[in-house]
């Protein structure tokens, strides 16, 4: 069983850092902007189910927008990332959501990700309001994360896996390595109705 995910969003919002934090447990402080796209594949076990998880990391620069749809057309999950500290990035996120809705296969799950929450001091509520507004017309799924601190990353992917019980039945390619995903909310926090607890 396999699942395909794609990360979309403007340049510098932290797409590659989220993927690296999830797959390798760290981030690259000297990472250069992704050119075109990069691919990571993992063998995942989640709540007793095993499947192959392929992640496309796409470029945020506008010159690559024309070719990006080839990476998300058959995706099961589209993670659309915005910068929590920069509301201007919301416009890029909404643009990508419209692209996914019009060009991806039917049934794709869209999750908005407000990354860089480590830069937010006392204004988390306004960031969550932005996420709710962005996701209102696209399934109302969102998460708040900090790839730098590693917060919300496990919850983000566990939340996504729980949303797509049927998608994991699709055929995939060869696994690369095994990653165990823990269930979210181990500290007792409740998960929001349409957002993941971070």
TrEMBL record:
Keyword GTP-binding applies: yes
Key words of the record: GTP-binding, Nucleotide-binding
Top-level division of the source organism's lineage: Eukaryota
GO molecular function per UniProt: GTP binding; GTPase activity
InterPro entries xref list: P-loop_NTPase, Rab, Small_GTP-bd, Small_GTPase
Cited Pfam families: Ras (PF00071)
Keyword Protein transport: no
Name of the featured protein: Ras-related protein RABH1a
């Amino acid at each position: 069983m396999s699942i395909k995910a794609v990360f979309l969003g403007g340049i510098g919002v932290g797409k590659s850092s989220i993927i690296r934090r999830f797959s390798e447990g760290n981030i690259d402080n000297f990472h250069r902007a992704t050119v075109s796209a990069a691919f990571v594949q993992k063998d995942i076990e989640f709540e007793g189910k095993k499947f192959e998880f392929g992640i496309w990391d796409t470029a945020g620069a506008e010159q690559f927008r024309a070719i990006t749809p080839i990476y998300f057309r058959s995706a099961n999950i589209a993670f659309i990332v915005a910068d929590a500290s920069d509301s201007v990035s919301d416009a890029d996120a909404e643009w990508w959501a419209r692209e996914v809705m019009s060009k991806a296969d039917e049934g794709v799950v869209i999750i908005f990700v407000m990354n860089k929450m480590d830069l937010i001091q006392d204004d988390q509520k306004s960031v969550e309001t932005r996420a709710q507004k962005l996701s209102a017309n696209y399934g109302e799924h969102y998460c708040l994360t900090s790839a730098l601190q590693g917060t919300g990353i496990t919850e983000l992917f566990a939340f996504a896996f729980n949303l797509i019980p049927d998608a994991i039945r699709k055929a995939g390619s060869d696994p690369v390595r095994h990653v165990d995903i823990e269930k979210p909310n181990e500290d007792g926090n409740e998960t929001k109705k349409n957002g993941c607890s971070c």
